[in-house]
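Section 3.1: Structural characterization of target chains.
Under the original work plan, the team committed to producing a structural model for every single-chain target entering the pipeline before any wet-lab resources were allocated. The record below documents one such target. The sequence was received from the expression subgroup and is listed exactly as submitted; it comprises 582 residues.
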Amino acid sequence: MNNRAGSFLWNIRQFSTLVPTGRTVRLYPSGFCRPKIVYSSWNPRKLLSNFDNRMQSSIRYLFQDALIFKSGGDGFQTKGISTATVLTVDRLLCRRRLSFNSKHFVSDNGLKKNFHHEASNEDVLTKRTKPTPINCRKLSQECNSLSDVLDIFSKAPTFPSSNYFSAMWTIAKRMSDDQKRFEKQLMFNHPMFSQLCEQIMREAKIMHYDNLLFSLHAMVKLGIPQNTLLIQTLLRVVQERINECDEKCLSVLSTILEAMEPCKNVDVLRAGLRMLVDQQVWKIERVFTLQAVMKCIGKDAPIGLKRKLEMKALKELDQFSVLNSQRMFAVLAAMNHRSIILLNECSKIVTSNIHGCPFKILISILQSCRDLQYFNIDLFKGIADYVATTFDIWKLKKVLFLLILFENVGFRPVSLMDLFMKKAADEPGFLNVKSLVSILHVYSSLNHFHKCWTHEFLEVMASALTGSLHHITSENLLNAVCSFCLMNHFPLAPINQLLQKDIIHDLLTSGDVERNVHKLHVLAACLKLDDVPCHKDTHLVLPQLSSMPSHPHAKVAEVLSSLLGEGCFSKSVWLPHNYYIE
């Protein structure tokens, strides 16, 4: 009897070790295991007094490696636990586990059973059946194609599925455009691709938020159509969980939205991002994240949010690297916000570190200055001098692209244009119709001439244009001839072809008719002013120019009238040869 009582007391102590007071496990429908505090009314003395009547066979619950015991009576109350006998849940979905210190349990028949050995057997079985987690970086290193990743997925799918898409995008970035196009087609036709898409839709609500964003980013970059159920489902889940965004997720989400076309879910998500940024803008620590957010919010963002982001950028100006300063031009242009202070400070950094600046960055800076209507002569001169110094390493087409952008912003890089003029005259082989028309437009618009090379340059351009007359369009011919005339050069063959009736009729009936009419009037005025002999008898019947819709500058007119006095200021004046002065 004493042995039985001692065994019973030992059993009571083991129950105290096995089930801590008020600590139970709740099984959630989403597959997560979370501990929950339950205030139980369990009393060991009450159990001792009613042991013979209430002690029944215990039911064992298996949740991963945890054993939960439930008495048949009201001695154990486990609130909210499922009554299933055995539950099998992938351990990857549950980060928290229960552990037991006890190795033995005594049932109501007094026999001891070793549960430690049984649990060890279950661990071995789980390890044999459960696939090993896949690391995205390791997967991208082991596989050489997108189909290889899908083949690995077909053998043993693991959680989270975002690793497979991220690995495929990493592999695709290493490929050429043709190979990437071919591999994407194989990916779409792979039998496991649709299963992978279905699995990631099922996991979207339970995987980590950053994994969800990385997978969506990979899908967008891999060219999965935006109107598919997969992309739209992930967009909706991202919307629902947007409050889980940290700084890293803000950067990824901004990159995703920037790459996507407008649609209902994208617009809603962008609006949510704006609200989130408005709340967390002062918590952003990395300049790269700040610029990604600024570039994403769009041109139609509230002006208050734009100014708040501008103030944050000015506050972090001391932390700007050279790359941050170079990118800031495109960032401000993307959000259509002209911050003179920020642009001036970034211009100083760019100008002082101009050597070694990539061509794409130079193009981006000049395009952004054009869009923002920002003129900084020190910045433009620094870029032009750098390109002129390293002129021999640049292709002429790239230099021409820079000259076109300089013309757009109204800056004339003298030394660079002189070098290009000489190079084009010495090597006219690169000239085609498109580049020829662009060169003539730039030099005539900026009114650039050189003492020694201008005549030779114009002769080479005229010769190249004459050789292209059989396949040049009417508008390109008009643009080229007008540029020649503005530079006081009149190549006969192109002019004679342009003045043919069928070409004039084509220009007056198709394309940008108003612009063509204006250029034809300019051409006629130049031919009359220069009194070209072969065109004395040429008479162009052209429609009248449309009345110049001058926007009334009332304040300017008022100030000038007050300064100059009455009778000394006139507005809307027509001059001979259709010149007009506001």
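The chain has 28 helices and nine strands.
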